[in-house]
């Protein structure tokens, strides 16, 4: 592998999504990632080849029984030659298999050990899947129509966000030049990503509330709108955007941000009536040249068709490529590893 992380070796004892996604992002950047799998293979292989490929391209693989003496001996050899180890399992399993810095520093005191868990290494073994964390941290409660039930996003936002955060923590500790233990939990990451929502409550006592059509709590209008055909996401964050939009849509008044927030229902009624006169794609074509943040709501197949540069080939698999662009570096993509000894 070539790339900015070429020469860095990372071991992964990963399961399903968060851990494997973290190391795949690093592998795309040139790191050598060795996926340590149990004798029967990592469980996500059972989900299907395309699922496994979407999280494990650009890696090598080795089967080790970490509960055996021989497996532990081979793990020590790999740790001695590696820069980092990332694991996402229950805390008790991480400790039982000796996958912490305290257990592995005898092989390499510069090894960086990242534990990706639900609630922290000392947070217990309570199951912590993506949807459970979204429910536990307030994400589901603040999502959806106010008249309806809580809603979960249509993808694994907690797992993916935690994977990226774990990759950042791993690289930060490598750059420091010191080995050590790094902890990242799904709960902490999701609470961290509720930044301004949490700050409003902690400092001003404002509890998050749901608005229809996913409307923003501060900016008006900033939400989904029905049009003559399809839905449009419109995000007006300042008076300049509003002036350009209002002139194109034929709306008078509401020139200041604070006025639009105070008269939310009136503004939304005026905008909804105006947008009903054209289709979502029509408004997109009219408003984008004016610099207004806007998009018609598209399906995933439509989005992939419109962004072919993001679709890459890794062996027989077509996948979404790395989102990181580095001048002078072109990522290579190889298929996920076969299950070998």
From TrEMBL:
Tell me which domain of life the UniProt entry assigns to the organism this sequence originates from: Bacteria
Q: Which InterPro entries match?
A: CoA-transferase_III_domain (IPR050483), CoA-Trfase_fam_III (IPR003673), CoA-Trfase_III_dom3_sf (IPR044855), CoA-Trfase_III_dom_1_sf (IPR023606)
Q: Which UniProt keywords apply?
A: Transferase
* Keyword Transferase belongs to the record: yes
GO molecular function, one example?
transferase activity
What this protein is called in its record is: CoA transferase
Q: Does the keyword Nucleus apply?
A: no
């Amino acid at each position: 592998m070539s790339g900015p992380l070429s020469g860095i070796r990372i071991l992964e004892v990963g399961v399903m999504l968060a851990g494997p996604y973290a190391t795949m992002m690093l592998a795309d950047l040139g790191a050598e990632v060795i996926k340590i799998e149990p004798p029967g293979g990592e469980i996500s292989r059972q989900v299907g080849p395309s699922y496994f490929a979407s999280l494990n391209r650009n890696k090598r693989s080795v089967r080790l029984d970490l509960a055996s003496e021989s497996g532990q001996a081979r793990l020590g050899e790999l740790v001695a030659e590696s820069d980092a180890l990332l694991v996402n399992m229950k805390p008790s399993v991480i400790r039982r298999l000796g996958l912490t810095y305290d257990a592995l520093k005898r092989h390499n005191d510069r090894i960086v050990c990242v534990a990706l868990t639900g609630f922290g290494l000392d947070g217990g073994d309570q199951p912590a899947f993506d949807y459970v964390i979204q429910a536990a941290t307030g994400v589901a409660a603040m999502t959806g129509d106010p008249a309806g039930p809580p809603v979960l996003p249509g993808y694994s936002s907690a797992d993916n966000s935690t994977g990226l955060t774990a990759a950042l923590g791993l690289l930060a500790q490598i750059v420091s030049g010191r080995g050590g233990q790094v902890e990242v939990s799904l709960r902490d990451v999701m609470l961290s990503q509720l930044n301004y929502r949490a700050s409003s409550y902690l400092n001003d006592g404002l509890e998050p509330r749901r608005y229809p059509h996913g409307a923003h709590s501060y900016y008006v209008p900033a939400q989904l709108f029905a049009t003559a055909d399809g839905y449009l996401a419109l995000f007006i964050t300042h008076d300049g955007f509003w002036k350009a939009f209002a002139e194109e849509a034929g709306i008078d008044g509401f020139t200041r941000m604070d006025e639009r927030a105070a008269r939310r229902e009136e503004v939304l009624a005026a905008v909804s009536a105006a947008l009903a006169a054209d289709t979502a794609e029509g408004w997109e074509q009219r408003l984008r040249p004016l610099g207004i943040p806007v998009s018609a709501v598209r399906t995933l197949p439509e989005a992939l068709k419109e962004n072919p540069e993001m679709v890459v080939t890794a062996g027989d698999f077509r996948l979404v490529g790395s989102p990181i662009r580095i001048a002078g570096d072109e990522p290579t993509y190889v298929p996920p590893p076969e299950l070998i000894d």
